[in-house]
């Protein structure tokens, strides 16, 4: 995988760290020379470029046509939006992710402006707060822009109907897929024979309407 990261601040640096750990290729573009020096020391000169990513020539020089993802995560919404539009419509980038700094600008970060997925930090934090108040068992990890589906995490309760059972014995709601199970520090890709243990953190891809059914199965006590 090859990822172009636009913006070398905290989020861009963190993304680069994750990509490096997962042995993915990446380059960070930033127009702040201090950031470039810092990032070059951390990731190596081959992974950083000084320049304005709103300039199509800069993106072309970084082989954007080969990029699997372009992540526009600078601290300025206008930069992220312009870069997203250029990446999508001039270079046909297959996947463009953009950071929303000011929640009032979120309405601009749409498919029509070249953004496949907008990361609105304020909105994510707001959802977490609301969910802590209304449905303590759930944590929304990612909400998709279409179809009312989300990736959610749910902790299996010790006395729930699911505890101690195999996945094939569970009646999951329709339109729900069990993606992964965190058993302590171990990450498990589940199959029908996988046993659910109390305390397991389980990730689902599910329609929002199925939350109550999932909670009844994994979180409520018998």
Q: How would you explain this protein's 3D organization?
A:
The termini are far apart. The longest helix has 14 residues, at 121-134. The chain folds into 2 domains: 2-119, NAD(P)-binding Rossmann-like Domain (Rossmann fold); 135-218, 2-Layer Sandwich (Alpha-Beta Plaits). It has helices at residues 10-21, 33-43, 56-61, 77-89, 121-134, 211-218, and strands spanning 2-6, 25-30, 48-50, 69-72, 96-100, 117-120, 138-143, 149-155, 176-183, 186-188, 201-207. The protein is 29% helix and 26% strand. The strands form 2 sheets. Strands 3-2-1-4-5-6 form a 6-stranded parallel sheet, sandwiched between helices. It has 6 helices and 11 strands. The chain is of the alpha/beta class and 222 residues long. Residues 132-136 have low confidence and may be disordered. Strand 4, helix 4 and strand 5 (96-100) form a beta-alpha-beta unit.
Any chance you could write out the topology, listing elements then pairs?
Elements: E1 2-6, H1 10-21, E2 25-30, H2 33-43, E3 48-50, H3 56-61, E4 69-72, H4 77-89, E5 96-100, E6 117-120, H5 121-134, E7 138-143, E8 149-155, E9 176-183, E10 186-188, E11 201-207, H6 211-218
């Amino acid at each position: 995988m090859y990822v172009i990261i636009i913006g070398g601040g905290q989020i861009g640096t963190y993304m680069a760290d994750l990509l490096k750990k997962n042995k993915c290729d990446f380059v960070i573009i930033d127009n702040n020379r201090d950031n470039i020096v810092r990032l070059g020391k951390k990731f190596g000169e081959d992974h950083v470029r000084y320049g304005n990513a709103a300039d199509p020539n800069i993106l072309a020089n970084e082989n954007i046509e080969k990029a699997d993802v372009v992540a526009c995560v600078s601290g300025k919404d206008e930069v992220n939006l312009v870069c997203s539009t250029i990446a999508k419509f001039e270079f046909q980038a297959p996947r463009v992710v953009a950071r929303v700094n000011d929640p009032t600008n979120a309405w601009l970060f749409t498919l029509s402006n070249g953004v496949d997925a907008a990361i609105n930090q304020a909105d994510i934090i707001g959802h977490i707060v609301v969910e802590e108040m209304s449905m303590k068992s759930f944590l929304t990890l990612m909400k998709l822009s279409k179809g009312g589906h989300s990736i959610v995490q749910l902790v299996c309760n010790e006395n729930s109907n699911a505890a101690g059972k195999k996945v094939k014995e569970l009646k999951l709601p329709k339109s729900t897929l069990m993606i992964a199970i965190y058993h302590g520090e171990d990450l498990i890709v589940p199959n029908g024979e996988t046993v659910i243990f109390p305390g397991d953190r389980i990730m689902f891809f599910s329609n929002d309407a199925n939350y109550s059914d999932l909670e009844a199965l994994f979180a409520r006590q018998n």
